[in-house]
Amino acid sequence: MIETHDLTKKYGELFAIRSIDLKLDEGDLFGFIGPNGAGKTTTMRIVATLLNPTWGEAYVCGNSIYTKPKEIRRLVGYMPDFFGVYDDMRVIEYLEFFAAAYRIRGERRRQLCNEMLEIVDLDFKRDAYANTLSRGQTQRLGLARTLLHDPQVLLLDEPLSGLDPRARIEMRNLLRRLGQMGKTIIVSSHILPELADICNKIGIIDRGVLGVNASVAEVMKQVRQRTVLHVAVKENYEAAARLLEQHEQVERVELAAPRIVVTLKQGADDYSEIPSWLIQHGYKLTLFREEDVSLESAFMALTKGMGAKT
Fold first, then answer.
1. In this structure, are 261 and 119 located in the same domain?
2. Does residue 43 contact residue 80 with C-beta atoms inside 8 Å?
3. Measured between alpha carbons, how far is 50 from 27 in angstroms, rounded to an integer?
4. N or C: which end of the chain has fewer CB within 10 A?
5. Residues 14 and 135 placed together within one structural domain of the fold
């Protein structure tokens, strides 16, 4: 659905982005992570055909940004970080205005606008003036506008920015639903942990260089050097800890009552025999799980020194 090859944008001697290579398939939800000024917006604007690269190529659904920009604009819905709303327009009028710009006419236009308000859970505000909406509601209205022409590709620039916790949860759930509808989505953000829940692929960019581009699982695997297990038993957890210390896969055991934190040796990824081993020794397990690596930890580990290489 989206491919870029050696995508580069320069302003004088400054590289906004440098040699960006991306490949996203239908239904991918790609989390584009990086600090402000890293090159996220520049990349998305080039894919949306709103900005020409200095060199390199980008394709959307097989269409080149150079030869078929009009076709790409029909396929893409682009939502910028900040966008204006018309103060003297009601929410439904705002959507109908943009639907008319997409040449959607008659009863179909009104029906479509109502459907979009339902999708973004904003139908209860259909007759409110746009300038009375909260930040989160304004973001949802912007997303409804972006969806009007049923784009196959969504480019969402910082849709979670500036939202309160409840609004972020609602927007995150909405993005997850759009991914389930088969849309290919690029969503940029610096709110790292929240993207791990909704994205299947992650890109980490800093100073224009895409240093990490992989699935969420692969990113976590790159960061984790050793597997950490959290274990709890019904009774005698100190004795269980001493027993775990004897296992050949175990490097270190720590007591964090009532849990036992077990660090495995490097390369010991298959720990499936440890639970049965404890049970064979008479212990009843009440907890056995692998410790998650947060996306924020992954970001800090994987971007350490990345900007210095540019």
1. no
2. no
3. 23
4. C
5. yes
